Amino acid sequence: MTTFTFDKLVIFGVGLIGGSLARALRERSGAARGSRIVGVGRTRASAERARELGVVDDIASLDDDTELAAALAGADLVLVAAPVAQTQPLLARIAPFLEARTIVTDAGSTKSDVVAAARAALGERVSQFVPGHPIAGRESSGVEAALPDLYVGRNVVLCPLPENRPEDVARIDALWRAGGALVSTMSHEQHDRVFAAVSHLPHLLSFALVERILSAPDAALKFSFAAGGFRDFTRIAASSPEMWRDVCLANRDALVEELDGYTAVLAMLRAAIVAGDGAALEAVFARSREARTQWQERGGRASGHLAPK
Amino acid sequence: MTTFTFDKLVIFGVGLIGGSLARALRERSGAARGSRIVGVGRTRASAERARELGVVDDIASLDDDTELAAALAGADLVLVAAPVAQTQPLLARIAPFLEARTIVTDAGSTKSDVVAAARAALGERVSQFVPGHPIAGRESSGVEAALPDLYVGRNVVLCPLPENRPEDVARIDALWRAGGALVSTMSHEQHDRVFAAVSHLPHLLSFALVERILSAPDAALKFSFAAGGFRDFTRIAASSPEMWRDVCLANRDALVEELDGYTAVLAMLRAAIVAGDGAALEAVFARSREARTQWQERGGRASGHLAPK
């Protein structure tokens, strides 16, 4: 149904995220017919695997001015799909070769820091940058793990800047919808508050539980009796330490606010336990159970009140 | 391989836990050949379903002195499989009919409170009570959910009292092993510290996260973008509010100590985030990931250092 087409898409970082969008465009939607997809890596070798797998048509090295200029020449779309901490140096590296017609987007899981990085790296040309965040992933990473249907039915959040042209935002919206995603927009501040609450804080809490158990003299005994509840609760504590370090620092303000609010809930529950106030505990537990059950029954994601565009 | 046999087992509360042990003894091990299993409910009707399903041979009502006396006459084993808050009234009700030869055990998920309840209800005859905790469950409850293999390969913790006769502890150990379980022993204080850390605290934290999100004005927006990490982290927030209220109050001291230790870890992580100390965050996250991964690789439960008896 999509009529989305493009001339040339340049992907910086052809791993799971960038590679899956490339595969979706080529294999699912036909959007890439007659188009070129270029993969750029830190070296040519790091992008070579993506070309071998047929995920991209051409490759270039970030370190080579000539290759980088050739990669960006005539590009209508650029996707930065690298760890958020690399956004500013990457955009600064791209800036001298960026044509006025090119729209740049990213896939970072935090947005306020990415906006600040884009302003610092691009100056007035930040108008060409439409911040984005696909809510999708797999346990495995790298271009070998890329899937053409990774984004099907998943949320992508765009956080348009006041400087963005509406038609540029619409192009990035169409790009992700061509990949099968449901696209929503919100401010970068709201994005970061939402994901601090439903993603970043849970990861921090999960890591913290394992750390707490590890700190006990009888840690081995405790682990040996951990069962299903522990398994579910701590599954996300097996996530990448580097990525979550970066996310915690990149989304510092919203995460600390969320953590403080959470700590206040714990203090309230502690007081109820100490006071033997079973009614207060049961009220909280019942309310949480009801909300969690409803969320699960809705299919565990967006429904209705925030209509996908 | 088991040579465990018994004359008469009386189960107070023939639901998932008690019903599964009865089915295991009858259907798995042959231990029930020539034996009687009696189910006791609050009324005769509540136990009737267990007899219809062939899980027990006879039933009795807790409210009827004559039936209760007949049920306990000649019993060598009694299992109390009711919510922990009912332990004391149940044992007080049983006490007048308890023969000197009968060994009583329970299946409560907290132990210090159960020991206190047993001392209060049984007095000197607490020597006949061997506290126990099978670490097994299902999402569904009731005797219809009972399974003959619910305990196969699962941990059962016994918390023997100084007053217990070693041969009585050995009988309860053999009872659970006849059901397929791995049996360990520890003090009731240690049991409650271990399960506060690996089960009770995670449940509290999971309920608290949903409560925190619910308290936000944009709760609906947040839920709509919650994804896999949230799903795993909050699965246990769909647990029974009544049960977890009782567990939190029954294991108050150990849980508050564990919660305070956990809150201290959160404060340390908060300080690292505010200070921008990425190295400190990464060190905690990497240590947690390593421990969580090793736990998973060991099969997610007991291994080696605490040899099952």
TrEMBL record, chains A, B:
Family assignment from sequence similarity: Belongs to the prephenate/arogenate dehydrogenase family.
**What species is given as this protein's source?**
Trinickia dabaoshanensis
GO terms (molecular function) for this protein are: NAD+ binding; prephenate dehydrogenase (NAD+) activity; prephenate dehydrogenase (NADP+) activity
Q: Which GO terms describe its biological process?
A: tyrosine biosynthetic process
What is the designated name of this protein?
prephenate dehydrogenase
Enzyme nomenclature, EC number: 1.3.1.12
Prephenate/arogenate dehydrogenase domain sequence ranges: 7-303
Q: Report which reactions are catalysed by this protein.
A: prephenate + NAD(+) = 3-(4-hydroxyphenyl)pyruvate + CO2 + NADH
Task: Provide the top EC class.
Answer: oxidoreductase
This protein's pathway reads: Amino-acid biosynthesis; L-tyrosine biosynthesis; (4-hydroxyphenyl)pyruvate from prephenate (NAD(+) route): step 1/1
PANTHER family this protein is in? Answer: PREPHENATE DEHYDROGENASE, PREPHENATE DEHYDROGENASE [NADP(+)]
Q: Does the keyword NAD apply?
A: yes
